[in-house]
Amino acid sequence: MVRLHSTGSSRRPTNVTLPAQLLEEAKSLDLNISQACEQGLKSAIASIRAQQWLAENRSSLEESRQYVEENGLPLADYRNF
After folding, report:
1. Which of 3, 17, 46, 73 has its Cα between 20 and 30 A from that of 66?
2. Helix (H, G, I), strand (E, B) or coil at 26
């Protein structure tokens, strides 16, 4: 799995274009724009990776669901609840 944050100093400057009103409001709130962009990017990456994982594993998940529908939960006889 790819790490989203490394402990080394492998950070690189980048240019980001943002709507002026959004930038002004962030500055007025003393928001660290770099950190906010980083958090948003991490969130977007995590969301896309989750969607990719579901797409890649959809058939296995469906087979498992279908097995449980037809046969019940494995080891269900040993459940205490």
Report:
1. 46
2. helix
CA distances for 69 relative to 55, 61, 62, 77, angstroms: 21, 12, 10, 16
Q: pLDDT above 90 covers what percent of the chain?
A: 75
- At which residue do the structure tokens 């709507």 appear? 19
Structure tokens at 37: 């962009």
Which residue matches tokens 């058939």?
Answer: 59
Name the pTM for this structure. 0.69
The CA distance from 58 to 65, in Å, is 10
pLDDT, tens digit (0-9, with 9 covering 90-100), for 64-80: 999 999 999 888 888 88
CB of 1 within 8 A of CB of 52? no
What is the Cα–Cα distance from 36 to 34, expressed in whole angstroms?
5
